[in-house]
Protein backbone atom coordinates (compact mmCIF):
# COMPACT_ATOMS: atom_id res chain seq x y z
CA UNK A 1 0.00 0.00 0.00
CA UNK A 2 1.29 3.48 -0.86
CA UNK A 3 0.26 7.07 -0.18
CA UNK A 4 -0.35 9.06 -3.34
CA UNK A 5 0.56 12.65 -4.12
CA UNK A 6 -2.67 14.00 -2.60
CA UNK A 7 -2.65 11.83 0.50
CA UNK A 8 -5.01 9.10 -0.80
CA UNK A 9 -4.08 5.48 -0.45
CA UNK A 10 -2.93 3.81 -3.65
CA UNK A 11 -3.35 0.06 -3.66
CA UNK A 12 -1.04 -1.45 -6.23
CA UNK A 13 -2.42 -4.31 -8.30
CA UNK A 14 -0.92 -7.61 -7.31
CA UNK A 15 0.21 -10.04 -9.99
CA UNK A 16 1.58 -13.55 -9.78
CA UNK A 17 3.42 -15.25 -12.64
CA UNK A 18 3.67 -19.03 -12.49
CA UNK A 19 6.34 -20.48 -14.79
CA UNK A 20 9.40 -18.37 -15.54
CA UNK A 21 10.35 -19.59 -19.03
CA UNK A 22 10.83 -17.12 -21.89
CA UNK A 23 7.14 -16.17 -21.94
CA UNK A 24 6.44 -15.98 -18.18
CA UNK A 25 9.86 -14.44 -17.59
CA UNK A 26 9.18 -11.67 -20.06
CA UNK A 27 5.78 -10.91 -18.45
CA UNK A 28 7.36 -10.89 -14.99
CA UNK A 29 10.19 -8.60 -16.09
CA UNK A 30 7.88 -6.14 -17.84
CA UNK A 31 5.35 -5.96 -14.98
CA UNK A 32 8.18 -5.39 -12.52
CA UNK A 33 9.71 -2.65 -14.72
CA UNK A 34 6.31 -0.96 -14.73
CA UNK A 35 6.38 -0.88 -10.95
CA UNK A 36 3.76 -3.57 -10.33
CA UNK A 37 3.89 -5.95 -7.36
CA UNK A 38 4.83 -9.33 -8.80
CA UNK A 39 5.11 -12.71 -7.13
CA UNK A 40 7.23 -14.99 -9.37
CA UNK A 41 6.78 -18.74 -8.95
CA UNK A 42 8.62 -21.65 -10.52
CA UNK A 43 9.48 -25.18 -9.45
CA UNK A 44 12.99 -24.71 -10.82
CA UNK A 45 15.40 -23.14 -8.33
CA UNK A 46 17.69 -21.62 -10.96
CA UNK A 47 14.81 -19.81 -12.66
CA UNK A 48 13.62 -18.49 -9.30
CA UNK A 49 17.12 -17.25 -8.44
CA UNK A 50 17.25 -15.40 -11.74
CA UNK A 51 14.04 -13.53 -10.85
CA UNK A 52 14.78 -12.84 -7.18
CA UNK A 53 16.33 -9.42 -7.97
CA UNK A 54 13.59 -8.56 -10.46
CA UNK A 55 10.23 -9.54 -8.92
CA UNK A 56 8.81 -8.30 -5.60
CA UNK A 57 9.00 -11.88 -4.30
CA UNK A 58 10.23 -15.03 -6.02
CA UNK A 59 9.50 -18.48 -4.63
CA UNK A 60 10.27 -22.07 -5.52
CA UNK A 61 6.96 -23.93 -5.53
CA UNK A 62 5.03 -26.61 -7.36
CA UNK A 63 1.87 -24.86 -8.51
CA UNK A 64 -0.05 -28.14 -8.82
CA UNK A 65 -0.03 -28.40 -5.02
CA UNK A 66 -3.20 -26.70 -3.80
CA UNK A 67 -1.92 -26.22 -0.25
CA UNK A 68 1.12 -24.34 -1.59
CA UNK A 69 -1.01 -21.96 -3.65
CA UNK A 70 -3.27 -21.41 -0.62
CA UNK A 71 -0.37 -20.69 1.70
CA UNK A 72 1.04 -18.18 -0.81
CA UNK A 73 -2.28 -16.33 -0.53
CA UNK A 74 -2.91 -16.46 -4.26
CA UNK A 75 -6.65 -16.01 -3.86
CA UNK A 76 -6.01 -12.37 -2.94
CA UNK A 77 -4.08 -11.59 -6.11
CA UNK A 78 -5.75 -9.47 -8.78
CA UNK A 79 -4.34 -11.35 -11.73
CA UNK A 80 -2.44 -14.61 -12.01
CA UNK A 81 -0.63 -15.60 -15.20
CA UNK A 82 -0.07 -19.33 -15.75
CA UNK A 83 2.91 -19.45 -18.10
CA UNK A 84 3.59 -23.19 -17.98
CA UNK A 85 3.66 -24.49 -21.54
CA UNK A 86 5.21 -27.88 -22.08
CA UNK A 87 3.70 -29.53 -19.04
CA UNK A 88 0.05 -29.33 -20.13
CA UNK A 89 -1.10 -31.37 -17.15
CA UNK A 90 0.52 -28.93 -14.70
CA UNK A 91 -0.87 -25.93 -16.60
CA UNK A 92 -4.45 -27.29 -16.48
CA UNK A 93 -4.29 -28.38 -12.85
CA UNK A 94 -2.79 -25.04 -11.77
CA UNK A 95 -5.48 -23.07 -13.61
CA UNK A 96 -8.22 -25.23 -12.10
CA UNK A 97 -6.90 -24.78 -8.55
CA UNK A 98 -6.57 -21.00 -9.03
CA UNK A 99 -10.17 -20.67 -10.23
CA UNK A 100 -11.40 -22.90 -7.40
CA UNK A 101 -9.53 -20.70 -4.93
CA UNK A 102 -11.51 -17.78 -6.35
CA UNK A 103 -8.75 -15.87 -8.17
CA UNK A 104 -10.57 -13.11 -10.08
CA UNK A 105 -8.50 -13.13 -13.24
CA UNK A 106 -6.42 -15.99 -14.59
CA UNK A 107 -4.55 -15.72 -17.88
CA UNK A 108 -3.11 -19.00 -19.14
CA UNK A 109 -0.73 -19.86 -21.93
CA UNK A 110 -1.89 -22.64 -24.26
CA UNK A 111 0.34 -24.99 -26.24
CA UNK A 112 -2.28 -26.06 -28.77
CA UNK A 113 -5.99 -25.75 -29.60
CA UNK A 114 -7.07 -28.63 -27.34
CA UNK A 115 -5.12 -27.20 -24.44
CA UNK A 116 -6.81 -23.85 -25.09
CA UNK A 117 -10.27 -25.47 -25.14
CA UNK A 118 -9.68 -27.19 -21.81
CA UNK A 119 -8.30 -24.02 -20.21
CA UNK A 120 -11.42 -22.10 -21.27
CA UNK A 121 -13.73 -24.86 -20.03
CA UNK A 122 -12.19 -24.86 -16.57
CA UNK A 123 -12.60 -21.11 -16.29
CA UNK A 124 -9.42 -19.39 -17.53
CA UNK A 125 -10.46 -15.78 -18.13
CA UNK A 126 -8.00 -15.23 -20.93
CA UNK A 127 -6.04 -17.77 -22.95
CA UNK A 128 -2.93 -16.79 -24.89
CA UNK A 129 -1.39 -18.80 -27.64
CA UNK A 130 1.79 -16.77 -28.16
CA UNK A 131 3.21 -18.49 -31.24
CA UNK A 132 -0.13 -18.62 -33.04
CA UNK A 133 -1.19 -15.09 -32.01
CA UNK A 134 2.15 -13.64 -33.11
CA UNK A 135 1.91 -15.59 -36.39
CA UNK A 136 -1.54 -14.11 -37.11
CA UNK A 137 -0.29 -10.64 -36.22
CA UNK A 138 2.73 -10.85 -38.49
CA UNK A 139 0.76 -12.41 -41.36
CA UNK A 140 -1.79 -9.61 -41.12
CA UNK A 141 0.88 -6.97 -41.37
CA UNK A 142 2.80 -8.58 -44.22
CA UNK A 143 -0.10 -9.50 -46.48
CA UNK A 144 -1.04 -5.89 -46.82
CA UNK A 145 1.53 -3.21 -47.62
CA UNK A 146 -0.48 -0.47 -45.94
CA UNK A 147 -0.94 -2.25 -42.60
CA UNK A 148 1.80 -1.48 -40.07
CA UNK A 149 0.56 -3.23 -36.97
CA UNK A 150 -2.35 -5.23 -35.75
CA UNK A 151 -3.76 -6.05 -32.34
CA UNK A 152 -6.49 -8.62 -31.85
CA UNK A 153 -9.11 -7.46 -29.30
CA UNK A 154 -11.32 -10.53 -29.58
CA UNK A 155 -11.65 -13.23 -32.23
CA UNK A 156 -13.76 -10.75 -34.25
CA UNK A 157 -12.40 -7.29 -33.39
CA UNK A 158 -9.05 -5.60 -33.83
CA UNK A 159 -7.11 -2.38 -33.68
CA UNK A 160 -5.07 -1.81 -36.82
CA UNK A 161 -2.45 0.76 -37.73
CA UNK A 162 -2.65 1.63 -41.44
CA UNK A 163 -1.08 4.16 -43.80
CA UNK A 164 -3.48 6.57 -45.48
CA UNK A 165 -2.93 6.86 -49.23
CA UNK A 166 -4.02 9.05 -52.15
CA UNK A 167 -7.66 7.94 -51.92
CA UNK A 168 -7.98 9.67 -48.54
CA UNK A 169 -5.62 12.59 -49.17
CA UNK A 170 -7.09 16.02 -48.41
CA UNK A 171 -10.37 14.68 -47.05
CA UNK A 172 -11.65 15.47 -43.59
CA UNK A 173 -12.88 12.78 -41.22
CA UNK A 174 -16.43 14.04 -41.73
CA UNK A 175 -16.00 13.79 -45.54
CA UNK A 176 -14.80 10.23 -45.15
CA UNK A 177 -17.46 9.42 -42.52
CA UNK A 178 -15.86 6.02 -41.94
CA UNK A 179 -18.11 5.16 -39.02
CA UNK A 180 -21.28 5.41 -41.11
CA UNK A 181 -19.71 4.05 -44.30
CA UNK A 182 -17.55 1.26 -42.95
CA UNK A 183 -18.51 0.76 -39.29
CA UNK A 184 -14.97 1.50 -38.05
CA UNK A 185 -13.64 4.31 -35.87
CA UNK A 186 -10.43 6.28 -36.42
CA UNK A 187 -9.20 6.64 -32.86
CA UNK A 188 -5.92 8.42 -33.56
CA UNK A 189 -3.91 9.96 -36.41
CA UNK A 190 -0.12 10.16 -36.49
CA UNK A 191 1.29 12.87 -38.70
CA UNK A 192 5.03 13.69 -38.91
CA UNK A 193 5.62 11.78 -35.66
CA UNK A 194 2.92 13.69 -33.74
CA UNK A 195 -0.08 11.74 -32.53
CA UNK A 196 -3.56 13.22 -32.35
CA UNK A 197 -5.75 11.06 -30.14
CA UNK A 198 -9.52 11.40 -30.68
CA UNK A 199 -9.22 13.59 -33.79
CA UNK A 200 -12.04 16.05 -34.52
CA UNK A 201 -14.40 15.62 -37.44
CA UNK A 202 -12.79 18.54 -39.31
CA UNK A 203 -9.29 17.05 -39.19
CA UNK A 204 -7.88 16.48 -42.66
CA UNK A 205 -6.14 13.23 -43.56
CA UNK A 206 -2.99 13.37 -45.70
CA UNK A 207 -1.25 10.82 -47.86
CA UNK A 208 1.26 9.04 -45.56
CA UNK A 209 -0.56 9.74 -42.29
CA UNK A 210 -0.81 6.77 -39.97
CA UNK A 211 -4.37 5.98 -38.87
CA UNK A 212 -5.22 3.84 -35.89
CA UNK A 213 -8.59 2.24 -36.48
CA UNK A 214 -10.79 0.01 -34.39
CA UNK A 215 -13.65 -2.21 -35.53
CA UNK A 216 -14.81 -5.66 -36.45
CA UNK A 217 -12.40 -7.60 -38.68
CA UNK A 218 -15.01 -7.69 -41.41
CA UNK A 219 -15.51 -3.91 -41.38
CA UNK A 220 -11.77 -3.25 -41.17
CA UNK A 221 -11.29 -5.47 -44.20
CA UNK A 222 -13.87 -3.53 -46.19
CA UNK A 223 -12.26 -0.24 -45.11
CA UNK A 224 -8.81 -1.48 -46.19
CA UNK A 225 -10.04 -2.73 -49.58
CA UNK A 226 -11.99 0.40 -50.44
CA UNK A 227 -10.03 3.24 -48.88
CA UNK A 228 -6.40 2.20 -48.78
CA UNK A 229 -4.03 2.15 -51.71
CA UNK A 230 -2.18 -1.06 -52.64
CA UNK A 231 -4.99 -3.24 -51.30
P1 LIG B 1 8.84 -20.86 -22.76
O1 LIG B 1 8.27 -21.43 -24.03
O2 LIG B 1 7.99 -19.77 -22.16
O3 LIG B 1 10.28 -20.51 -22.84
P2 LIG B 1 9.85 -23.18 -21.44
O4 LIG B 1 9.90 -24.05 -22.66
O5 LIG B 1 11.12 -22.64 -20.91
O6 LIG B 1 8.77 -22.02 -21.66
P3 LIG B 1 7.77 -24.57 -20.05
O7 LIG B 1 7.80 -26.04 -19.96
O8 LIG B 1 6.80 -23.96 -20.96
O9 LIG B 1 9.24 -24.04 -20.28
O10 LIG B 1 7.57 -24.06 -18.55
C1 LIG B 1 7.82 -22.75 -18.18
C2 LIG B 1 8.29 -22.79 -16.75
O11 LIG B 1 7.27 -23.37 -15.93
C3 LIG B 1 9.56 -23.59 -16.50
O12 LIG B 1 10.53 -22.73 -15.91
C4 LIG B 1 9.13 -24.67 -15.54
O13 LIG B 1 10.13 -24.93 -14.53
C5 LIG B 1 7.89 -24.08 -14.90
N1 LIG B 1 6.98 -25.10 -14.38
C6 LIG B 1 6.57 -26.22 -15.00
N2 LIG B 1 5.74 -26.93 -14.21
C7 LIG B 1 5.61 -26.23 -13.05
C8 LIG B 1 4.89 -26.42 -11.83
N3 LIG B 1 4.11 -27.48 -11.64
N4 LIG B 1 5.01 -25.48 -10.86
C9 LIG B 1 5.78 -24.39 -11.04
N5 LIG B 1 6.47 -24.16 -12.16
C10 LIG B 1 6.41 -25.06 -13.16
In terms of topology, how is this protein built?
Blueprint: E1 2-3, E2 9-10, E3 14-18, H1 22-33, E4 37-42, H2 45-51, E5 57-60, H3 66-71, E6 79-82, H4 88-101, E7 105-109, H5 113-121, E8 126-128, H6 130-142, E9 147-152, E10 157-163, E11 171-172, H7 173-176, H8 178-182, E12 185-191, E13 194-197, E14 204-205, E15 210-216, H9 217-227
Parallel strand pairs: 3-4, 3-6, 4-5, 6-7, 7-8
Antiparallel strand pairs: 1-2, 9-10, 10-15, 11-14, 12-13, 12-15
This protein binds adenosine-5'-triphosphate.
The site of adenosine-5'-triphosphate has 21 residues, from α1 and β4.
Organism: Scopulibacillus cellulosilyticus
GO biological process, one term: monoatomic ion transmembrane transport
Keywords: Ion channel, Ion transport, Transport
Mean pLDDT score: 89
Residue fraction in strands: 25-35%
Return the CATH architecture of the largest domain. 3-Layer(aba) Sandwich
CATH class of the largest domain: Alpha Beta
What can be said about the biggest beta sheet?
6 strands, parallel
Number of helices: 9
Which strand order do you get reading across the main beta sheet? 5-4-3-6-7-8
* CATH fold group of the largest domain: Rossmann fold
- What is the count of structural domains? 2
Are there runs of 5+ residues with pLDDT below 50, and where? 1-6
Question: What's the CATH H-level superfamily name of the largest domain?
Answer: NAD(P)-binding Rossmann-like Domain
Shape: elongated
Helix content: 25-40%
Q: What are the distinct ligands in this entry?
A: adenosine-5'-triphosphate
- Report, as a whole number of angstroms, the end-to-end distance: 52 Å
Tell how many strands the DSSP assignment holds: 15
Radius of gyration: 22 Å
- Secondary structural class: alpha/beta
Series of H and E elements: EEEHEHEHEHEHEHEEEHHEEEEH
